[in-house]
Structures are given as C-alpha cells and as structure tokens.
Amino acid sequence: MTLSVIIIVAVLAVLVRRVIGEPLNARDLWIPPIVLTGIGLWSLVGIDGLRPADYAWLAGGSLLGVALGYLRGHYVTVFEKSGHLWQRYTGRTFAAVGLSLAVMLGFGLLAAKLGVRPDASPIQLGIGLSFLGESLAVTRHALTLNAPFAPERSSILRR
C-alpha cells in the first residue's frame, strides 16, 4: 500500500466516525493539532533565505488557517451522551470545509503569483493551525454544556 492510500483510508475513517458521532476526548482534540503545528514550525527552521514576503504569507496564512478552522469547528455539533461530551460533523461542517479549501487554494495561488517561496508554507503547519482553530471552537461549545470530556479511548473500550 502506498502512503497516499494509507492517508486517504485514515482520513475517511475519521470522517465516518465524526459523521456518526464520537466521544469528545480533550487529548484527542488538542494533541494532534499541536503536534502537526509543531512539525510545521520545525520544518521552517531549516529554510534559508526567507524574504519579508514569505514571512507575511506565513503570518497571513496562519491567521487565515486558524480562522477557517474556527469557522469549521463552529459547525461541529457538541452534545452530551452517556454522561460525557460527544461530537458530530454536520452538513454545515462539510460546507465550511469546502469554503476553507477554496479560500486557502485562492490564497495559495495569490502567494505563488506574488513570488512567495513554496517551501515557506509547510502543509503540516497549515493543517495543524486549521485544526487548532477547530479545537478552539469545539472546546468553547463543550465548556458551555457543563459536561465532562470523554475519558481516553482505552478506558472507553474497557466498558
């Protein structure tokens, strides 16, 4: 199996779980975006010769990524079930995903037209920041419900 197929299968599995609904675990909500963002930032360390336009693109793209992720997270349904929080993606969540992809594609095309270096925009950083924005919105919704986050998966499986 190629890496592309593995990634596609993993993404589809996550999407199916989120459409059906899954327990909302704080660690699962925050650790992956933090790790992806860290990897993206780390990949910038080895790049020599970034220009002011590259840094501006990074700053603008980062803010845009967090904002679009927050928008997507705003449309995630958060609810209480079995004594703890759950989350579910809705049609509006997927509409926000489509809008986000279109906006980021346009932003990327504009950056390329303006001569921004392609390696100044690590994919992991963009994905990580987007999911950080989603995590912010989902956490905000979750805290208004006054219910506990779901226990870690291993303890859910033992039940």
TrEMBL record:
It comes from the Bacteria. The keyword Membrane applies. The chain crosses the membrane at residues 31-50, 55-73, 93-112. Keywords: Membrane, Transmembrane, Transmembrane helix. This is DUF1453 domain-containing protein. It comes from Actinoplanes utahensis.
